[in-house]
From TrEMBL:
This is fructose-bisphosphatase. Keywords: Carbohydrate metabolism, Hydrolase. One of its GO terms (cellular component) is cytosol. Its EC number is 3.1.3.11. GO terms for biological process: fructose 1,6-bisphosphate metabolic process; fructose 6-phosphate metabolic process; fructose metabolic process; gluconeogenesis; sucrose biosynthetic process.
Amino acid sequence: MQTPTIPLNPSSTFPPKSHHTQLKLLPKLHLLPQSLFYRPPKMASLGGFGFGVRSQVVGGGASSSSSSGVDTNGLCTLTEYVGKEGMNVGDDMVVLLHHIQYACKRIAALVASPFNSSLGKQNTLAGTGTASGRDAPKPLDIVSNEIILSSLRSSGKVAVMASEEDDAPIWLTDDGPFVVVTDPLDGSRNIDASIPTGTIFGIYNRLVEVDHLPKEEKALLNSLQAGARLVAAGYVLYSSATILCTSFGSGTHAFTLDHSTGDFILTHPSIKIPPRGQIYSVNDARYFDWPEGLRRYIDTVRQGKGRYPKKYSARYICSLVADLHRTLMYGGVAMNPRDHLRLVYEANPLSFLAEQAGGRGSDGKSRILSIQPVKLHQRLPLFLGSLEDMEELESYGDVQQRVNPGYEV
Ligand SMILES: O=P(O)(O)OC[C@H]1O[C@](O)(COP(=O)(O)O)[C@@H](O)[C@@H]1O
Protein backbone atom coordinates (compact mmCIF):
# COMPACT_ATOMS: atom_id res chain seq x y z
CA MET A 1 0.00 0.00 0.00
CA GLN A 2 1.42 3.36 -0.93
CA THR A 3 1.37 6.44 1.25
CA PRO A 4 0.07 9.74 -0.09
CA THR A 5 2.19 12.26 -1.94
CA ILE A 6 3.83 14.68 0.45
CA PRO A 7 2.61 18.26 0.12
CA LEU A 8 5.52 20.69 0.17
CA ASN A 9 3.44 23.42 1.70
CA PRO A 10 3.68 22.90 5.47
CA SER A 11 0.40 24.65 6.13
CA SER A 12 -1.66 22.28 3.99
CA THR A 13 -4.36 20.38 5.85
CA PHE A 14 -3.56 17.07 7.42
CA PRO A 15 -4.41 14.38 6.71
CA PRO A 16 -5.52 14.36 3.07
CA LYS A 17 -8.85 12.56 2.60
CA SER A 18 -7.35 9.56 0.87
CA HIS A 19 -4.91 9.23 3.76
CA HIS A 20 -7.83 9.03 6.19
CA THR A 21 -9.28 6.11 4.31
CA GLN A 22 -5.99 4.32 4.42
CA LEU A 23 -5.70 4.81 8.15
CA LYS A 24 -9.04 3.15 8.76
CA LEU A 25 -7.81 0.19 6.76
CA LEU A 26 -4.48 -0.03 8.49
CA PRO A 27 -5.30 -2.42 11.32
CA LYS A 28 -6.69 -4.82 8.70
CA LEU A 29 -3.60 -4.71 6.51
CA HIS A 30 -2.94 -8.38 7.05
CA LEU A 31 -6.32 -9.29 5.59
CA LEU A 32 -5.64 -7.62 2.26
CA PRO A 33 -4.54 -9.71 -0.70
CA GLN A 34 -0.76 -9.72 -0.69
CA SER A 35 -0.77 -8.68 -4.33
CA LEU A 36 -1.82 -5.20 -3.16
CA PHE A 37 1.40 -4.66 -1.24
CA TYR A 38 4.22 -2.76 -2.79
CA ARG A 39 6.91 -5.13 -3.95
CA PRO A 40 9.99 -3.55 -5.43
CA PRO A 41 11.86 -5.76 -7.88
CA LYS A 42 14.13 -8.29 -6.19
CA MET A 43 17.64 -6.98 -5.83
CA ALA A 44 20.44 -9.45 -5.31
CA SER A 45 22.52 -6.93 -3.36
CA LEU A 46 19.77 -6.53 -0.78
CA GLY A 47 19.33 -10.24 -0.19
CA GLY A 48 18.89 -10.89 3.52
CA PHE A 49 17.26 -7.53 4.19
CA GLY A 50 13.78 -8.70 3.32
CA PHE A 51 11.12 -10.96 4.71
CA GLY A 52 13.66 -13.65 5.46
CA VAL A 53 14.85 -11.34 8.21
CA ARG A 54 11.33 -10.61 9.31
CA SER A 55 10.62 -14.31 9.70
CA GLN A 56 13.55 -14.44 12.15
CA VAL A 57 11.99 -11.60 14.12
CA VAL A 58 8.69 -13.43 14.44
CA GLY A 59 10.51 -16.60 15.32
CA GLY A 60 10.15 -18.37 12.00
CA GLY A 61 12.80 -20.47 10.37
CA ALA A 62 14.63 -19.74 7.14
CA SER A 63 11.60 -20.55 5.04
CA SER A 64 10.95 -18.83 1.75
CA SER A 65 7.32 -18.02 2.43
CA SER A 66 5.44 -16.96 5.54
CA SER A 67 2.26 -18.61 6.79
CA SER A 68 0.19 -15.97 4.96
CA GLY A 69 1.89 -16.77 1.70
CA VAL A 70 3.94 -13.56 1.65
CA ASP A 71 6.86 -13.75 -0.75
CA THR A 72 9.65 -13.99 1.79
CA ASN A 73 12.27 -12.86 -0.72
CA GLY A 74 10.59 -9.49 -1.23
CA LEU A 75 11.45 -6.27 0.55
CA CYS A 76 9.62 -5.15 3.61
CA THR A 77 8.08 -1.78 4.47
CA LEU A 78 8.07 -0.36 7.98
CA THR A 79 4.30 -0.75 8.22
CA GLU A 80 4.51 -4.41 7.23
CA TYR A 81 7.44 -4.94 9.58
CA VAL A 82 5.57 -3.73 12.64
CA GLY A 83 2.14 -5.10 11.65
CA LYS A 84 0.42 -8.35 12.54
CA GLU A 85 2.51 -10.41 10.14
CA GLY A 86 5.72 -8.94 11.51
CA MET A 87 6.65 -7.74 14.99
CA ASN A 88 3.00 -7.22 15.84
CA VAL A 89 3.54 -4.13 17.96
CA GLY A 90 -0.21 -3.62 18.30
CA ASP A 91 -2.74 -1.75 16.18
CA ASP A 92 -2.48 1.47 18.22
CA MET A 93 1.27 1.63 17.75
CA VAL A 94 0.98 0.82 14.03
CA VAL A 95 -1.41 3.75 13.57
CA LEU A 96 0.82 6.07 15.60
CA LEU A 97 3.88 5.05 13.62
CA HIS A 98 2.07 5.63 10.37
CA HIS A 99 1.40 9.22 11.45
CA ILE A 100 4.97 9.74 12.63
CA GLN A 101 6.24 8.45 9.28
CA TYR A 102 3.90 10.79 7.47
CA ALA A 103 5.06 13.79 9.51
CA CYS A 104 8.71 12.93 8.90
CA LYS A 105 8.16 12.60 5.16
CA ARG A 106 6.70 16.09 5.18
CA ILE A 107 9.70 17.38 7.14
CA ALA A 108 12.06 15.58 4.74
CA ALA A 109 10.36 17.36 1.85
CA LEU A 110 10.53 20.65 3.69
CA VAL A 111 14.25 20.54 4.51
CA ALA A 112 15.03 19.59 0.91
CA SER A 113 12.75 22.13 -0.74
CA PRO A 114 14.23 25.03 -2.73
CA PHE A 115 11.19 27.10 -1.76
CA ASN A 116 11.76 26.99 1.96
CA SER A 117 15.36 28.12 2.35
CA SER A 118 14.32 31.21 4.31
CA LEU A 119 12.82 28.92 6.96
CA GLY A 120 16.33 27.83 7.89
CA LYS A 121 17.29 31.36 8.86
CA GLN A 122 17.18 32.68 12.38
CA ASN A 123 13.90 33.57 13.93
CA THR A 124 11.54 35.45 11.71
CA LEU A 125 8.57 33.65 13.28
CA ALA A 126 7.80 34.01 16.95
CA GLY A 127 8.46 30.83 18.90
CA THR A 128 6.77 29.82 22.12
CA GLY A 129 9.99 28.75 23.82
CA THR A 130 12.29 30.79 25.99
CA ALA A 131 15.64 29.94 24.37
CA SER A 132 17.61 32.80 22.89
CA GLY A 133 20.76 33.46 20.86
CA ARG A 134 22.10 30.50 18.94
CA ASP A 135 19.69 28.19 20.80
CA ALA A 136 16.61 30.13 19.66
CA PRO A 137 14.32 28.08 17.41
CA LYS A 138 14.36 28.76 13.69
CA PRO A 139 11.18 28.94 11.62
CA LEU A 140 12.00 25.47 10.33
CA ASP A 141 12.02 24.13 13.91
CA ILE A 142 8.65 25.71 14.53
CA VAL A 143 7.09 24.44 11.30
CA SER A 144 8.46 20.93 11.95
CA ASN A 145 6.98 21.09 15.42
CA GLU A 146 3.58 22.01 13.95
CA ILE A 147 3.79 19.16 11.45
CA ILE A 148 4.47 16.63 14.19
CA LEU A 149 1.81 18.05 16.49
CA SER A 150 -0.77 17.93 13.70
CA SER A 151 0.09 14.30 12.87
CA LEU A 152 0.05 13.16 16.48
CA ARG A 153 -3.27 14.88 17.06
CA SER A 154 -4.76 13.24 13.95
CA SER A 155 -3.59 9.81 15.05
CA GLY A 156 -5.96 9.88 18.03
CA LYS A 157 -3.39 7.71 19.81
CA VAL A 158 -1.45 10.30 21.76
CA ALA A 159 -2.45 11.65 25.15
CA VAL A 160 0.50 14.03 25.52
CA MET A 161 3.15 15.46 23.26
CA ALA A 162 6.21 17.05 24.86
CA SER A 163 8.47 18.85 22.42
CA GLU A 164 11.81 20.56 22.73
CA GLU A 165 10.17 23.51 20.98
CA ASP A 166 7.36 24.01 23.49
CA ASP A 167 7.62 25.34 27.03
CA ALA A 168 5.07 22.86 28.36
CA PRO A 169 3.70 19.51 27.19
CA ILE A 170 0.46 19.57 25.21
CA TRP A 171 -2.46 17.44 26.29
CA LEU A 172 -4.09 15.96 23.17
CA THR A 173 -6.54 13.12 23.82
CA ASP A 174 -7.76 11.79 27.17
CA ASP A 175 -7.81 8.17 26.10
CA GLY A 176 -4.70 8.26 23.88
CA PRO A 177 -2.63 5.25 24.94
CA PHE A 178 0.74 6.92 24.29
CA VAL A 179 2.95 9.82 25.32
CA VAL A 180 5.34 11.16 22.68
CA VAL A 181 8.47 13.20 23.43
CA THR A 182 10.24 14.77 20.48
CA ASP A 183 12.92 17.04 19.14
CA PRO A 184 11.19 17.82 15.82
CA LEU A 185 14.29 19.02 13.95
CA ASP A 186 17.67 18.60 15.57
CA GLY A 187 20.66 20.29 13.97
CA SER A 188 18.56 22.89 12.17
CA ARG A 189 21.29 25.50 12.53
CA ASN A 190 23.16 23.53 9.85
CA ILE A 191 20.41 23.67 7.31
CA ASP A 192 21.77 26.50 5.15
CA ALA A 193 24.83 24.39 4.39
CA SER A 194 22.72 21.33 3.59
CA ILE A 195 24.25 19.42 6.47
CA PRO A 196 22.10 16.51 7.69
CA THR A 197 19.39 17.11 10.27
CA GLY A 198 17.10 14.75 12.15
CA THR A 199 13.86 14.20 14.03
CA ILE A 200 14.04 12.36 17.35
CA PHE A 201 11.08 10.74 19.11
CA GLY A 202 10.38 8.59 22.15
CA ILE A 203 7.13 6.81 22.96
CA TYR A 204 5.85 5.90 26.45
CA ASN A 205 2.60 4.39 27.61
CA ARG A 206 0.20 6.88 29.21
CA LEU A 207 0.33 6.68 33.01
CA VAL A 208 -3.29 5.72 33.75
CA GLU A 209 -2.65 6.10 37.47
CA VAL A 210 -2.49 9.90 37.07
CA ASP A 211 -5.57 10.18 34.82
CA HIS A 212 -7.53 11.85 37.65
CA LEU A 213 -5.13 14.82 37.94
CA PRO A 214 -5.60 18.21 36.23
CA LYS A 215 -4.40 18.23 32.62
CA GLU A 216 -1.31 20.35 33.19
CA GLU A 217 -0.13 18.17 36.04
CA LYS A 218 -0.72 14.84 34.35
CA ALA A 219 0.82 16.08 31.11
CA LEU A 220 4.01 16.93 32.98
CA LEU A 221 4.18 13.68 34.97
CA ASN A 222 3.61 11.62 31.83
CA SER A 223 6.40 13.48 30.06
CA LEU A 224 8.89 13.08 32.89
CA GLN A 225 9.03 9.29 32.72
CA ALA A 226 12.50 7.76 32.98
CA GLY A 227 13.99 6.49 29.72
CA ALA A 228 13.91 2.93 31.09
CA ARG A 229 10.12 3.07 30.59
CA LEU A 230 10.30 3.84 26.85
CA VAL A 231 8.27 1.40 24.78
CA ALA A 232 9.69 2.66 21.49
CA ALA A 233 12.01 5.33 20.17
CA GLY A 234 13.45 6.44 16.89
CA TYR A 235 15.12 9.05 14.79
CA VAL A 236 14.73 10.10 11.19
CA LEU A 237 17.92 11.23 9.51
CA TYR A 238 17.47 13.72 6.65
CA SER A 239 20.62 13.25 4.62
CA SER A 240 21.61 11.86 1.23
CA ALA A 241 19.06 9.22 2.21
CA THR A 242 16.14 9.69 4.58
CA ILE A 243 16.51 6.95 7.16
CA LEU A 244 14.08 6.05 9.93
CA CYS A 245 15.82 4.09 12.66
CA THR A 246 13.62 2.66 15.37
CA SER A 247 13.35 0.20 18.22
CA PHE A 248 10.41 -1.32 20.07
CA GLY A 249 12.64 -2.92 22.68
CA SER A 250 13.83 -5.85 20.61
CA GLY A 251 16.72 -4.61 18.52
CA THR A 252 17.31 -1.46 16.49
CA HIS A 253 16.25 -1.46 12.84
CA ALA A 254 16.60 1.12 10.11
CA PHE A 255 14.39 1.77 7.10
CA THR A 256 15.29 3.91 4.11
CA LEU A 257 12.73 6.09 2.35
CA ASP A 258 12.02 5.02 -1.20
CA HIS A 259 11.09 8.39 -2.72
CA SER A 260 9.41 6.74 -5.68
CA THR A 261 6.74 5.09 -3.54
CA GLY A 262 6.88 6.96 -0.23
CA ASP A 263 7.61 3.75 1.69
CA PHE A 264 10.26 3.24 4.31
CA ILE A 265 11.99 -0.02 3.32
CA LEU A 266 13.87 -2.20 5.81
CA THR A 267 17.54 -1.81 4.91
CA HIS A 268 19.37 -2.31 8.23
CA PRO A 269 17.70 -5.02 10.33
CA SER A 270 19.05 -5.67 13.84
CA ILE A 271 21.82 -3.10 13.80
CA LYS A 272 24.75 -4.15 15.96
CA ILE A 273 27.10 -1.37 16.91
CA PRO A 274 30.66 -2.74 16.75
CA PRO A 275 31.96 -3.28 20.32
CA ARG A 276 34.92 -1.07 19.36
CA GLY A 277 35.18 1.73 16.88
CA GLN A 278 38.14 3.79 15.88
CA ILE A 279 36.34 7.13 15.81
CA TYR A 280 35.70 9.80 18.42
CA SER A 281 33.17 12.49 17.73
CA VAL A 282 33.28 15.71 19.72
CA ASN A 283 33.56 19.46 19.26
CA ASP A 284 37.22 19.59 20.20
CA ALA A 285 37.53 23.35 19.81
CA ARG A 286 36.32 23.15 23.43
CA TYR A 287 39.44 21.20 24.47
CA PHE A 288 40.60 23.88 26.91
CA ASP A 289 37.19 23.90 28.63
CA TRP A 290 37.28 20.14 29.15
CA PRO A 291 38.12 18.46 32.44
CA GLU A 292 41.47 16.75 32.72
CA GLY A 293 39.98 13.22 32.34
CA LEU A 294 38.35 13.93 29.00
CA ARG A 295 41.50 15.60 27.65
CA ARG A 296 43.58 12.57 28.69
CA TYR A 297 41.10 10.16 27.09
CA ILE A 298 41.09 11.98 23.75
CA ASP A 299 44.87 12.48 23.79
CA THR A 300 45.32 8.78 24.51
CA VAL A 301 43.06 7.34 21.84
CA ARG A 302 44.20 9.68 19.10
CA GLN A 303 47.77 8.57 19.70
CA GLY A 304 46.72 4.93 19.57
CA LYS A 305 47.75 4.41 23.20
CA GLY A 306 44.38 3.29 24.56
CA ARG A 307 43.11 -0.23 25.29
CA TYR A 308 42.55 -0.59 21.56
CA PRO A 309 46.00 0.08 20.16
CA LYS A 310 44.93 1.95 17.03
CA LYS A 311 45.07 5.66 16.32
CA TYR A 312 41.52 7.00 16.46
CA SER A 313 40.13 9.38 13.89
CA ALA A 314 37.88 12.39 14.53
CA ARG A 315 34.49 12.91 12.89
CA TYR A 316 32.10 15.60 14.05
CA ILE A 317 29.11 16.67 11.99
CA CYS A 318 27.63 18.74 14.85
CA SER A 319 24.25 17.24 14.09
CA LEU A 320 23.33 14.75 16.76
CA VAL A 321 21.27 12.32 14.71
CA ALA A 322 23.91 12.14 11.98
CA ASP A 323 26.71 11.69 14.51
CA LEU A 324 24.80 8.89 16.23
CA HIS A 325 23.86 7.21 12.96
CA ARG A 326 27.50 7.06 11.90
CA THR A 327 28.43 5.74 15.33
CA LEU A 328 25.84 2.96 15.09
CA MET A 329 27.26 2.00 11.71
CA TYR A 330 31.01 2.24 12.41
CA GLY A 331 31.36 2.25 16.20
CA GLY A 332 33.27 4.63 18.46
CA VAL A 333 31.91 7.36 20.74
CA ALA A 334 29.75 10.38 19.90
CA MET A 335 29.89 12.93 22.68
CA ASN A 336 28.71 16.30 23.81
CA PRO A 337 30.41 16.66 27.19
CA ARG A 338 28.77 19.91 28.33
CA ASP A 339 25.24 20.39 29.72
CA HIS A 340 23.67 21.02 26.34
CA LEU A 341 21.53 18.18 25.05
CA ARG A 342 18.17 17.44 26.59
CA LEU A 343 17.48 14.35 28.64
CA VAL A 344 13.81 13.97 27.71
CA TYR A 345 13.88 14.70 23.97
CA GLU A 346 17.36 13.67 22.86
CA ALA A 347 19.37 11.66 25.38
CA ASN A 348 16.66 9.17 26.36
CA PRO A 349 15.38 8.15 22.90
CA LEU A 350 18.89 7.98 21.44
CA SER A 351 20.27 6.00 24.40
CA PHE A 352 17.40 3.53 23.99
CA LEU A 353 18.40 3.02 20.34
CA ALA A 354 22.10 2.74 21.23
CA GLU A 355 21.40 0.15 23.93
CA GLN A 356 19.11 -1.84 21.68
CA ALA A 357 21.96 -1.95 19.16
CA GLY A 358 24.31 -3.31 21.84
CA GLY A 359 25.91 0.03 22.76
CA ARG A 360 25.62 2.41 25.70
CA GLY A 361 24.26 5.87 26.49
CA SER A 362 25.73 7.68 29.48
CA ASP A 363 26.15 11.14 30.99
CA GLY A 364 29.78 10.23 31.65
CA LYS A 365 28.95 8.64 35.00
CA SER A 366 25.55 6.97 34.88
CA ARG A 367 23.33 5.14 32.46
CA ILE A 368 21.07 7.70 30.80
CA LEU A 369 17.97 5.49 30.85
CA SER A 370 18.17 5.15 34.65
CA ILE A 371 18.12 8.90 35.30
CA GLN A 372 14.79 10.20 36.61
CA PRO A 373 14.06 13.51 34.82
CA VAL A 374 13.14 16.29 37.22
CA LYS A 375 12.64 19.05 34.67
CA LEU A 376 11.14 18.89 31.21
CA HIS A 377 13.99 20.73 29.49
CA GLN A 378 16.75 19.28 31.67
CA ARG A 379 20.15 19.33 29.96
CA LEU A 380 23.09 17.03 30.54
CA PRO A 381 26.35 15.77 29.02
CA LEU A 382 25.75 12.93 26.57
CA PHE A 383 28.04 10.10 25.48
CA LEU A 384 26.74 7.43 23.09
CA GLY A 385 28.65 4.60 21.53
CA SER A 386 30.34 1.22 21.44
CA LEU A 387 30.37 -0.74 24.68
CA GLU A 388 34.14 -1.11 25.01
CA ASP A 389 34.87 2.48 23.99
CA MET A 390 32.30 3.76 26.47
CA GLU A 391 33.74 1.64 29.30
CA GLU A 392 37.21 2.95 28.55
CA LEU A 393 36.00 6.55 28.39
CA GLU A 394 34.15 6.27 31.71
CA SER A 395 37.22 4.75 33.36
CA TYR A 396 38.80 8.24 33.09
CA GLY A 397 36.23 9.40 35.66
CA ASP A 398 36.36 13.09 34.99
CA VAL A 399 34.77 13.51 31.56
CA GLN A 400 31.85 15.92 32.11
CA GLN A 401 32.57 19.49 31.02
CA ARG A 402 31.43 21.76 33.85
CA VAL A 403 32.63 25.01 32.24
CA ASN A 404 29.89 26.05 29.85
CA PRO A 405 30.53 29.65 28.86
CA GLY A 406 28.03 29.75 25.98
CA TYR A 407 29.48 29.50 22.50
CA GLU A 408 28.61 31.70 19.57
CA VAL A 409 28.96 28.99 16.92
O1 LIG B 1 27.74 23.26 19.91
P1 LIG B 1 28.00 21.88 20.36
O2 LIG B 1 28.31 21.82 21.82
O3 LIG B 1 29.06 21.21 19.55
O4 LIG B 1 26.62 21.10 20.23
C1 LIG B 1 26.19 20.57 19.02
C2 LIG B 1 25.00 19.73 19.24
O5 LIG B 1 23.91 20.59 19.45
C3 LIG B 1 22.88 20.27 18.54
O6 LIG B 1 22.97 21.15 17.45
C4 LIG B 1 21.55 20.37 19.21
O7 LIG B 1 21.40 21.64 19.73
P2 LIG B 1 19.92 22.22 19.85
O8 LIG B 1 19.13 21.19 20.60
O9 LIG B 1 20.10 23.50 20.61
O10 LIG B 1 19.42 22.40 18.45
C5 LIG B 1 23.19 18.86 18.08
O11 LIG B 1 22.65 18.56 16.83
C6 LIG B 1 24.68 18.84 18.09
O12 LIG B 1 25.14 17.55 18.30
